[in-house]
Amino acid sequence: MSATPSKGRSLDRQITTQDVDCLREAFALFDNERKEVITPNELGKVLKKHGFRPSEKELSAMIKNFDKNSGDGGIDFEEFIELMVNHGHNIDENIAESFKVFDRDGDGLITEDELHITMNNLGEPMNEDEVKAMIAEADLDGDGKINFKEFQLLMDSKAL
């Protein structure tokens, strides 16, 4: 085994305060009812916005796998952190799937229109200036679009 540090993400490091703040923001996106618990119904709404079609039984099973307080019908913030950390090894797959959500026409590029439409569909409307700013932040080659590598670098900079 090599002693050279990996250039990828390491799950061996400690979670920082900034990581917890990011996770709290993500938790809030799921917890629309603001009850400090993500229910199967809330999880289903978010997954459906991303093109998944889980059954009620599948949603309940997902929640049950991480619900340590069995009986409250959802996962609280601490359980959510565990879910996110334990599933961090799949993060590159998640980035690829997320890219596909934004790349609506499948051409390998995210345009301003695609970003605008997708953010609206996700319940996070953006005005034209916000869309342009987000594209500019990620667009390293100056073509006015976000390719997969640029998207991955942007997500890496925002990830745990």
Helix content: 55-70%
Structural class: mainly alpha
Count of DSSP E strands?
Answer: 2
Strand portion: under 5%
Give the N-to-C terminal Cα separation.
25 Å
* Shape call: globular
Mean pLDDT: 80
Number of helices: 8
Query: How large, in whole angstroms, is the Cα Rg?
Result: 17 Å
Residue windows where pLDDT falls under 50 for at least 5 positions: 1-12
The largest sheet is: 2 strands, antiparallel
Order of helices and strands: HHHHHEHHEH
Strand order, largest beta sheet: 1-2
Can you describe this structure?
The chain has 8 helices and 2 strands; from the N terminus they run αααααβααβα. By secondary structure, the protein is mostly helical. The chain has a two-stranded antiparallel sheet with strand order 1-2. The chain is globular and about 50 Å long.
Quickly list its features:
single chain, two-stranded antiparallel ribbon, mainly alpha, 8 helices, 160 residues
